[in-house]
Specification:
Elements: E1 40-45, H1 52-61, E2 65-70, E3 75-80, H2 85-89, E4 94-95, H3 97-112, H4 115-118, E5 124-125, H5 136-140, H6 143-149, E6 157-162, E7 182-183, H7 203-212, E8 214-215, E9 220-221, E10 228-233, H8 243-255, E11 260-263, H9 280-296, E12 300-304, E13 340-345, E14 362-365, E15 383-386, E16 390-393, H10 397-414, H11 420-430, H12 460-464
Parallel strand pairs: 6-10, 6-11, 7-10, 11-12, 12-13, 13-14
Antiparallel strand pairs: 1-3, 1-4, 2-3, 5-16, 8-9, 15-16
């Protein structure tokens, strides 16, 4: 855990013998703060419980201003125009994702938002009177049968930490809880409706529909249409999710009684954050504290495994940033203890070609362009709601994760107040085992706990009966 560095005590020199003691040397005047350069936002770590006045004092002395301060976890969100602000605070205590992006240049920034994200673009728009026949993903986890028994409780809220949710969408307008929604892009919660609705991406709207959408006129139904959704916008208009946004989102979830959050993203700009490296250490610690705070307050956090198609436990390089990666490093937020990590399967029930693997808790449908359903059963990628009141398909572990979050919400509805650790165990226990196929040579472990599918394919029907 990071600690405040103590200010050095002033040096006192004894002067003896003479009638007149020498006057102490005047302290050098502090350099003026930069008032013209581009401001960047930082996460800054303190001892949990540090007084806000102490935070304000240090930030002001080091040319920063407070955007938000989360005292229970000792994390401040600060803004500064000074290029040396991180050095002034301490390179293991402060980090700015936006400044890191700017320093990498356009080519490196493009890598951060490259193929792993464009995979999840809306590929096709469904046009049919009844979409239920095209929802092979829901059939794979027995959601239609589960919905006949139980659709979840309105007392359960799932936080969708994403790019915003279209609150007027026919499948979502009855599910959105505006009072529990907030924009967290700046690192400080904004309750205005415009702050938590989508602007440049339909990603969050698609995720939301999978969790709890219901549109009888179109025949579309999500996993748990009886629960409520909160839109917590953490994705900025450029497509980045920086540490300060995620910290705000997890704290918001903790303090507003969410039972589950879905996190279909990794924190930018690095794919891996390393707690022993400058800058990374502050980001890792800030997010870790926020996630664990939410867990302690009763939230189960569910996250996508990622779309790079590699073993996350065996990486030695970061595909987004030039820094070494070892076993202490991880993709945030899924690397934090207690977060449910979800891999993806396609129509045939085998791992999606793009899905990360290695340390997996459960698997769920995320599609695969190489696993094409028969005619009439829908596109290769899961179908869900998109902005403009329509429907479309997307592939990705981002689409798998909300299936797991929806099943978790059904379990949380049945067992109100269930602790997140127990909720995770029930989710895993009710999953259907998926063993490694003979051809899946990189898949290791038994059928009920392996590196491709974790404890198995989530099962909505088993969750409600």
């Amino acid at each position: 855990m990071s600690r405040l560095r103590r200010m050095a005590a002033p040096l006192v020199l004894a002067v003896g013998g003479g009638l007149f003691a020498a006057a102490p040397a005047a302290e050098a005047a502090p350099a003026a703060c930069d008032t013209t350069s581009t401001p960047y936002t930082y996460v800054v770590t303190y001892q949990p419980g540090t007084r806000a006045s102490a935070v304000d004092k240090e930030l002001a002395a080091k040319c920063g201003t407070k955007v938000a301060y989360y005292a229970p976890i000792g994390v401040a969100i600060a803004s500064s125009r000074n290029a040396d602000f991180q050095e002034k605070i301490g390179v293991y205590r402060a980090y700015s994702g936006a400044k890191d992006v700017a320093s990498q240049g356009a080519a490196a920034s493009a890598r951060s938002l490259g193929a792993v994200r464009t995979l999840e673009d809306t590929r096709s728009v469904a046009a049919a009177d009844d979409l239920s026949a095209q929802q092979w993903d829901m059939k794979a986890i027995h959601a239609p049968e589960a919905n006949k028994i139980y659709q979840g409780s309105r007392a359960v809220t799932v936080g969708v930490l994403d790019s915003g949710i279209e609150a007027t969408h026919p499948a979502l307008r009855n599910a959105i809880d505006a009072r529990s929604s907030a924009g967290c892009v700046t690192g400080a919660p904004d309750l205005t409706p415009a702050s938590w609705q989508p602007t440049t991406s339909d990603h969050g709207t698609h995720v939301a529909g999978t969790i709890a959408g219901k549109d009888p006129a179109a025949g579309f139904t999500g996993v748990a249409p009886g629960v409520r959704l909160a839109s917590v916008k953490v994705v900025n208009d450029a497509g980045y999710i920086f540490p300060e946004s995620a910290v705000c989102g997890f704290v918001w979830a903790a303090e507003h009684g969410f039972a589950v959050t879905n996190n279909s993203y990794y924190i930018d700009p690095g794919m891996f954050y390393c707690p022993k490296q400058p800058g990374d250490a502050a980001a890792f610690e800030a997010v870790r504290r926020a996630v664990q705070y939410s867990t302690h307050r009763g939230v189960l956090n569910v996250a996508a495994a990622g779309n790079s198609g590699f073993d996350t436990t065996a990486q030695t390089t970061d595909p987004n940033r030039p820094h070494p990666v070892d076993s202490s490093c991880g993709i945030l937020p899924k690397a934090i203890d207690g977060v449910v990590k979800v891999s993806s399967v396609g129509y045939q029930g085998t791992k999606s070609s793009f899905s990360n693997y290695g340390e997996i808790d459960v698997t769920a449908p995320g599609g695969d362009f190489g696993q094409t359903p028969p005619a009439g059963e829908g596109p290769s990628c899961p179908l869900s709601s998109v902005v403009g009141g329509g429907y479309g398909s997307k592939c990705g572990t981002s689409m798998a994760s909300p299936h797991a979050a929806g099943v978790a919400a059904l379990i949380a509805s049945r067992f109100r107040g269930i602790p997140p650790q127990l909720l995770a165990r029930v989710l895993e226990g009710e999953a259907d085992a998926v063993k490694c196929a003979a051809t899946e040579t990189e898949c290791t472990g038994p059928a009920k706990n392996n590196s491709y599918y974790g404890h198995g394919l989530v099962d909505a029907l088993d969750a409600v009966r």
